[in-house]
Design a protein that fits this description.
Helix content is 49%, strand content 13%. By secondary structure, the chain is an alpha/beta fold. The protein has an 8-stranded mixed β-sheet with strand order 3-2-1-4-5-6-7-8, with helices on both faces.
């Protein structure tokens, strides 16, 4: 597989594939600026010659028009183009990389490095064999979640792709609050991280609805309920809803940028 752009997301995916047993020699990285690469994985500042069987687009979405022009010799009738470019839909991928055998949008998050990310997938029609390979590649990074169409892809990206950023922000706020109330910062950070790991493990193993999980931690008139009452009074649910909507809506802005930005991608575009 040729990975085009080696930014944070591509690094997480490559780490996840290597962790799952993909041979290092099966991955080739292209980035205009030299970067450290995992042992055994080649990174080049020039593109290979000739069509590639599998190609992952992981550059910045706004650089797609210029990057796609460079990639034309790498696209052939058996090439399957994978993309983690936020906001770039299948029609845009087909236009940018014509002549490929298929196109796939995929959206993991950085937990892909640990094999613990949901991976949203939407594609053009694929052969059964190619579809099985895509499913396997996604499953190596966590869990493959195929969508019937693209209409909700931006929303799924907001939840599964950007969601960890919201969780980390909440974690930071919890640690900040503990420190402000007198706890040493190192202890606040450690307790916050361990608490979230445990809470996530409980949620993953439970079939209960998420609101019920929260209710089970609290007791009427107890300490936890006092905190939940403050969050409800301050509109936590509405704030999270607005944040998720803002992330979703930014997908349309990225699509406009990808369609209209014809400026030359700067060196080191990933």
């Amino acid at each position: 597989m040729l990975v085009v752009g080696y930014g944070v997301m591509a690094q997480a995916m490559v780490a996840g594939w290597l962790r799952a047993g993909v041979p290092a020699g099966a991955l080739r990285l292209f980035n205009p600026r030299p970067k450290p690469a995992p042992e055994g994985v080649s990174l080049s500042t020039s593109l290979p010659k000739g069509p590639q069987r599998w190609l992952l687009l992981a550059c910045k979405p706004q650089h797609l028009p210029d990057v796609a022009a460079l990639l034309r010799p790498c696209i052939g009738p058996r090439t399957v183009v994978l993309s983690v470019l936020a906001g770039v839909d299948l029609d845009a991928l087909k236009t940018a990389t014509p002549g490929a055998a298929g196109w796939v949008r995929m959206m993991p998050n950085l937990a892909a490095a640990l094999g613990a990310s949901p991976v949203a997938l939407a594609s053009s029609p694929l052969s059964p064999a190619d579809g099985a390979v895509v499913d396997r590649l996604a499953s190596m990074l966590g869990s493959a979640v195929w969508l019937d169409g693209e209409d909700r892809f931006d929303l799924v990206t907001a939840l599964a792709g950007s969601g960890p950023g919201l969780v980390f922000a909440i974690m930071a706020a919890l640690a900040d609050a503990a420190e402000a109330n007198g706890l040493e910062r190192a202890v606040a950070d450690r307790l916050t991280r361990d608490m979230v790991v445990g809470a996530a493990a409980l949620a993953a193993r439970s079939e209960d609805a998420l609101p019920l999980l929260a209710a089970r931690v609290a007791s009427k008139g107890g300490m936890t309920q006092a905190g939940l009452d403050v969050l409800e009074a301050r509109g936590l649910a509405e704030t999270i809803r607005e944040a998720l909507t803002a992330i979703r809506d930014s997908g349309a802005q990225l699509r406009r940028a990808a369609a209209g930005d014809q400026g030359r991608a700067p060196a080191g575009f990933a």
